[in-house]
Amino acid sequence: MMSTVAAYAAPAPKAPLERTTIERRAVGAHDVLIDIKFAGICHSDIHQVNEGWGEAIFPMVPGHEIAGVVTEVGSEVTKYAVGDRVGVGCFVDSCRECDYCLRGLEQYCAKGNVQTYNAVDKNGDVTYGGYSKQIVVDENYAVRIPDSLPLDVAAPLLCAGITLYSPLKRWNAGPGKKVAIVGLGGLGHMGVKIAVALGAEVTVLSQSLRKKDDGLKLGAHDYRATDDPATFAELAGTFDLIVSTVSAPLDFTKYIGLLKTEGALVNVGAPEEPISINLFGLIVGRKTLAGSMIGGIAETQEMLDFCAEHGLGAEIELIGADQINTAYDRVQSSDVRYRFVIDTATI
After folding, report:
1. Which phi and psi angles does 87 have, rounded to 5°?
2. Hey, is 179 helix, strand or coil?
3. What is the pTM of this model?
């Protein structure tokens, strides 16, 4: 039987979020019902509420950084039991048949994965995200949150954590490698933590030195301001890997100049505007300009286990649901250190 649960939704593009109710599907044979305890606020939520990435579905219940507890399992569920601590990230289904799904790369599903919100599932129903009291998902698209990770600081790992972990692993960040993280925000601060834990020498490249003390406390070995022209001169040819986390368009030609020969600049931020680039900087150093998007289910579980092993959680500001709209304004003003997390008991 379907259930009615409380949620916060944007009723229309760019509209303030408001309390409402939504319908969740009945728990199927392979489903788990999760009581959501905490939900992170990702900048992606704001992009989608504002239709910055294109036409969206309204009313919209955002949220793809979900941490909670299983309260009911379907008759054929084998992975989870009532009481298990679980998370749900950016997608809740995929085709399960294409080469990418079979390789554990469901985020790149050839037929398109089903996003946790602002999407239509295989049954033709609109998906609603984590700014709500409960969610029903297929057991194969939930991940286990280790007991040593508090649920509130674990929630942002379901997007921010895996978004940085995946490219850092893919491009072999580790001992002997020099890594730069562009931007010290919700994504960037996790990039610093994870890259340091992997053993890399880490530099933060931020617009100013305003957050320098924070960056160094997080483990960064150096912190440089990109509004200082000397930064690009002094660090030219320095890095094996640069991961850009910012959602504003940058002069990527300048950042490519910071790479060593055969270095890689990987973008995980998603600006709404296009960028231009001088390709000559790539050619002369056999450098790579790439993109990366979250991770598959297995890699997300690997990331959570890694974070638990190294004691890594997000730096958060816990808020009540009535503060969501204020939090959106503050995120757009870069006034958060470093992730807002909603206590869903307040919804």
Report:
1. -130, 155
2. strand
3. 0.95
